[in-house]
Amino acid sequence: MPISKIKGNAINDDAITTAKLVDNAVTLGKTNNLFVNTEIAGTEAMKVPVGTTAQRANAQVGDLRHNTNLGILEQYTTDGWQGIASSPTVTSVSPNNIEESDSTQTVVITGQNFDANATAVLIGSGGNVTPTTSTRNSSSQITIVYSGSDVITSDTGPYDVKVTNGTGLAGTLDDAITLDAAPNWTTAAGNIATVTEDTAMSTATVAATDPEGGSVTYSVTSGSLPSGLSLNASNGQITGTPNVNDTVTSATVTHNFSITANDGTGNTTARAFNIIRNQKVGYASAHPATTIASMYAQNMANGMVWIQNSNLNSGNPFQMRYASHDGRGWLETLWSSDSGNGTPWTHWLNKGGSNYTRPQMYAYNQSSYGLNYSSGDSSFTKLHNSMGLVDFAVTSKSAVAGNGLTATGANQNSAYPLIASNHLSGSQSSACRLALTAYFGGYGEGFSSGSGAGDHNAVWQPSAGGPYEIHLSYRDGNQTLGEWHIADGFTSAGTTYAPNVGYRNDTGGAYDGANVGSWASSNSTKSSTYTIDSSNVLSCWVSDAL
Known about the structure:
The chain is mainly beta. 6% of the residues lie in helices and 38% in strands. β28 and β29 form a beta hairpin.
């Protein structure tokens, strides 16, 4: 009977059951037309197959099911199973700048449609930067954390933030995060300067750069600079004069410290440096000078210094008086306040025997090898030709222990100090200068010098007058025990008067005297104004520079 003949009210509820249908009575072929362009009405829902991912089976394009693992509907396409869901959307991140120096870097991502299996990564110029952990807090928030070896320290940003749902759908917020990198040092660690105690240092500069182009400031964060030095926080310059004034126990002291560069946003980078501080050579016996020039180079003050030479004092340091003058340094080798006419021959001249036709200077009245300023009326100490001495000067002092070459005793016509390299004239003035230096250095012998006579054709010829000869217990080819003239005054060649600088042992004669400070007087005898004594001291110096 055709189904159209069956009355609608003739089939009651549960009238047709599986038991009442013959096997295979209802086939797809007989029901296909029921599902062609099927329209389903109602207001509730249509139930589709439900199962886990593992329960997918016999998939065909067009299959639709609810995946209980993913919690969403899924469909099977030519590309395989795909979720039917909205893509995640990233709307903001906090913070939008992470610090390289942080030991743990945390980023909170805010958005929409983050499914239960959503994860997030940062993407830099080098690709994905995978976090240590990615935690879905809710459908609108994910927290990612970088810690340990995952901390981002190398800047490849700005970084995109990408959230990927379990469905494979993803959303990205471009250029969302930057890395605030710590400053990078351009100054190498280690020594940045070598300075000398009590001498202004040359500027030393440390430098670091901020990868983001910001300003960097500097501070000493461990250790300390030598006393007297300071660090400019803005430009990294270290300047000043080290004046630690500590007990000298070694030639050098190393000051270790760390300077931290700060970019002003909390990022800092420390680096270890050191400054080597030298004691002034000559400042103490533990750090003696071996040359006069080295003391001048470090601006040594006039006064007592420590000297060392392997040929002197058994190689042990000893003290001498130093002075800076005329652009170089000097050492005093002879002083005398003795007004006795025969002083040189009874004090510092080695004059006896056939070996001393030309008397030489020898050490006299020393104090621990240096000059004795506390007792006696004169003192001389020998130096050595290995010291490279090249110049000689003589001056007057108002006191035995006076400092400096500037004349403080008698100084007629302002002629003192007499300096060989400045005031000698003649074709052999250089040879005469070296002879004077060797003689008063204690390793030369007596000589004479004048205009066309003596050992050297050279005379003193300063602006104050002259010419004036030199006779150091030697004259006309013979030793003389009467003339020890550093400068011998005369008004014409061959006419000798009392010594302008030095001693004349002419007891009872017209030329007798011991003078320093007299220069251009034409009188045959000199005023007592120029007599060598405790307030008008004869002072002789040598230098290793011209």
